[in-house]
């Protein structure tokens, strides 16, 4: 069976948690596509060369989760040639046998516009910054500023900007416990299966 769940949304909205929960529940493979851009940013050098030569080992680095890696990812993600180099891998993953969940910024709009399920997971910048701050600590105002800076770059870029697909189901987790958000996502997938 081929079945693609596309999950898009801004940083720290809950995409990853929902994506992993859906994958576990339905036995689908899960790809956090942000890791691809984080790995390209972390490799340094020419980002286009890095994106074209990306390996599994690059994705397994343990320094990809930091705020700095997120910012570096967002910077290289505006480069059209970087995005182009990562398209085929993501599309193959999405259409592999057994079903797949991909989370990112452009999955429902660019990578898999034909996905069986499209979710747009969002929350207010303040709520998302607070979640990030609980993980990374430090200066809360700076974490909020970084979240807003990354939103502006991801939503404002010319190539594949972050926005909900016209047929995406929006899940706002600002005031929704994560269990309820997962239940809402499960219901959308079940209705389509
Ligand atoms: O989901 P994340 O925070 O790990 O993503 C890091 C950055 O990578 C994000 O700010 C923008 C970029 N990205 C993207 O442009 N397209 C994707 N599908 C996933 C991530």
In words, what does this structure look like?
The chain is of the alpha/beta class. The protein has a single domain, classed as P-loop containing nucleotide triphosphate hydrolases (Rossmann fold). Helices cover 55% and strands 12% of the residues. It has ten helices and five strands. Strands 2-3-1-4-5 form a five-stranded parallel sheet, sandwiched between helices. It is globular and about 45 Å long. The relative contact order is 0.23. The site of 2'-deoxycytidine-5'-monophosphate has 15 residues, from helix 2, helix 5 and helix 9.
Number of domains: 1
The largest sheet is: 5 strands, parallel
Helix run count: 10
Find the count of extended strands (DSSP E, 2+ residues).
5
Bound molecules: 2'-deoxycytidine-5'-monophosphate
Structural class: alpha/beta
The backbone outline, from C-alpha atoms, is globular
Strand content: 5-15%
Question: Any descriptors?
Answer:
193 residues; alpha/beta; Rossmann fold; five-stranded parallel β-sheet; 5 strands; 55% helix; binds 2'-deoxycytidine-5'-monophosphate
What is the gist of this entry?
It is built from 10 helices and 5 strands; from the N terminus they run βαβαααααβαβααβα.
Secondary-structure map with pairings?
Elements lengths: L3 E5 L6 H12 L2 E4 L1 H10 L3 H6 L3 H4 L7 H10 L3 H15 L5 E5 L2 H5 L5 E6 L2 H12 L3 H17 L12 E4 L5 H15 L1
Parallel strand pairs: 1-3, 1-4, 2-3, 4-5
Helix pairs in contact: 1-10, 2-5, 5-9, 8-9
Bound molecules: 2'-deoxycytidine-5'-monophosphate.
2'-deoxycytidine-5'-monophosphate (DC) binds next to helix 2, helix 5 and helix 9.
